[in-house]
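Hey, resending since the last one bounced:
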Amino acid sequence: MDPDFGRILETIRRASPLDLFLISFVLLPFVIAGWIDVADGLGLGFAAKLATVAVVIAAYLFWLFYMVAAARRRDAHELCRQQILDYLERNKLNAVSFERLRERFSADYTDEFLVAAINSFPGQLARVTLADGRAGVRGGERDETG
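The structure tokens again:
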């Protein structure tokens, strides 16, 4: 039976950072043992094996911090998306300026953050230039999760 890599990747994408951490933490000893076996096969000494373990652990920690940062960004973009769509629906608007979003929700919403949030949900949000020339966002279709 061939593995369905598309399905595996989709499962990983939907997993929470905690799920990924727990699974990777359980697998880490096996990964380290595998790399030590590779070092043994290459005839490397103790210092090289220790360096191999250090590199594997450093890569693991880098990946872990990256995943936490990515999850925080994703959560912030999701909150922003929900705020925008709710605001548009509540006020019966088609679009809203970036300035109004900062006034209503968070002064910390930079143009770069708002553009990144919009780009994270291309079917639901679109960047627009309002009639007065200001940058804004237009709502689109909501999916089954929104």
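Residues 142-146 have pLDDT under 50 and may be disordered.

Sorry for the duplicate.
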